[in-house]
Design goal:
By secondary structure, this protein is of the alpha+beta class. The chain folds into 2 domains: about 60 residues, no CATH class; about 150 residues, no CATH class. The protein contains 11 helices and 7 strands. Strands 3-6-2-1-4-5-7 form a 7-stranded antiparallel sheet. The termini are far apart. The relative contact order is 0.09.
């Protein structure tokens, strides 16, 4: 066992295991070898621990720096949004208390909004909820969190081609005129389907001229209504079937977001839509506050 040809330091793993087994059986051979290996292992372990401690300290420092930067950025975002919300508040607000869960979720989402334009939307929501608690659902907050800036811009243009019905709910008419202006304003015929897919508008419905007669609609700040025109020839005893027209209603989320979209009137849109309804459906779109001519509506 004292053969100098045996270089224990170069023993392979299987041979090392054999030496351990032998030393267990007869003693003497493995003790010094094991002591040397243990000493080397301890020394190596100290180096590893020291290196690991240094790396951990560096990682912790970087993590603290990252968290500090992130929290400072979040604080800045919240303060910017709060300032914008203050500017958007009306002179009088409801005395109702805001839901605590809503508040927590709002700031949890809003703190990570860095884009200036998107901050304006979040500020409007906060101002609207402060003014009238319950105006904006937590579902809308969740949706807006994932809404990118381009979708927000297109939705604003989309709202500029939409109407508010007498119940306050937003709709748009599904026809060639609307599609023409969607292409003109947003460059995409399929925008309606896209907003349907992501949950801002619902599936298409159908209306008839008779059903829409005297229906009030608002186009942004214009108060309008539909008037069914007299047909030039009504000699037939059998009433003709009325051609239906398509429209889409906004979803709950779309309805709430439409209030803060900031849409502006689109030049020529209302005039072309009015001509379309008159020629295709004998429906006229008139000022809701203007006196109605007795010979125009179908009595």
């Amino acid at each position: 066992m004292e053969n100098p040809l045996i270089d224990l330091g170069k023993l392979s793993e299987p041979l090392t295991k054999l030496v351990k087994v032998i030393s267990t059986g007869i003693g003497g051979v493995y003790a010094p070898f094991g002591t040397i290996r243990q000493a080397k292992a301890d020394a190596k372990a100290k180096i590893i621990h020291a290196t690991a401690d240094a790396e951990v300290a560096a990682i912790e420092q970087r993590a603290q720096s990252r968290l500090k930067y992130r929290e400072e950025l979040r604080q800045e975002n919240i303060e910017k949004i709060a300032c914008q919300a203050a500017l958007a508040l009306p002179e009088a607000v409801s005395s109702d208390v805001l839901d605590k869960d809503w508040i927590v979720q709002y700031f949890d989402h809003a703190q990570d909004v860095c884009d200036d334009d998107m901050q304006v939307l979040w500020a409007k929501i906060l101002a609207g909820e402060v003014s009238s608690p319950g105006s904006y659902s937590k579902r809308t907050l969740q949706f807006l969190k994932t809404m990118d800036k381009l979708d927000a811009e297109f939705f604003t243009k989309y709202c500029a081609l939409s109407f508010s019905m007498s119940n306050g709910w937003m709709h748009f008419f599904e026809n060639d005129i609307t599609r023409k202006f969607i292409l003109q304003e947003a460059g995409d015929y399929a925008l309606s389907q896209h907003f349907n897919d992501i949950g801002l508008v619902n599936t298409e419905g159908l209306g008839t001229p008779s059903a829409f007669h005297e229906i009030r609609i608002d186009y942004l700040d214009k108060q309008l209504k539909f008037i069914k025109l007299k047909k030039k020839e009504e000699n037939s005893l059998i009433p003709m079937l009325e051609p239906p027209f398509g429209f889409r209603a906004f979803s709950q989320v779309g309805q709430e977001l439409s209030r803060i979209a900031g849409a502006k009137p689109v030049k020529g849109f209302l005039e072309e839509l009015k001509h379309h309804f008159e020629s295709e459906y004998q429906l006229s779109i008139v000022d809701a506050n203007a006196p109605t001519q007795e010979d125009s509506p179908d009595q």
